[in-house]
Amino acid sequence: MADAVTSQTIFDGERVAVMKFTNVSDGTGEAGVVKVDVSALAANNEDKACNGVKIERMHTSVNGMSVNILWDATADVPAFIVAPGVNCFDFSKIQLPNDAGAGKTGDVLFTTIGAAANSTYTIMLEMVKTYAD
Q1: Model confidence pLDDT, tens digit, residues 58-100
Q2: C-alpha closest to that of 78 among 68, 89, 67, 90
Q3: Rounded CA gap, 112 and 42, in Å?
């Protein structure tokens, strides 16, 4: 059996993308799962492809585990670790940037930490999109 997960795009505009992710774990957990595939996000009005995102806000509800949000790269780089509880994180003044180095793809990955049966998360990411020049 595997964790029961969902990914939902709430909004995908020229500047902003909002996505919601859920997981009800059977104890298996997730490891390096692509949650935000920037190549699947809409291009801007100049038809430039989205090549990354900056996290502006996170709304989280996590129970029984933690979630490591990672920037995808040759060696994935932690963006933020979400601990158990209900929280809203506002990075609007700085927009949490993707500081991954070699092999940076722009994608966002999730890895669960300490997932046990019936552990859950709901995470909504509000992101500012970036584009190739």
Answers
A1: 999 999 999 999 999 999 999 999 999 999 999 999 999 999 9
A2: 68
A3: 28
8 Å CB contact between 69 and 127: no
Q: What is the pLDDT of residues 12-25, one digit of tens each?
A: 999 999 999 999 99
- pTM of the predicted model as reported, rounded to 2 decimal places: 0.96
Distance CA 87, CA 12 (A): 23
- Asked if the 4-131 domain carries CATH number 1.25.40, the reply is no
In the chain, the DSSP E strands lie at 4-12, 16-26, 33-36, 50-63, 66-71, 77-82, 85-90, 108-113, 117-131
Domain boundaries, the chain: 4-131
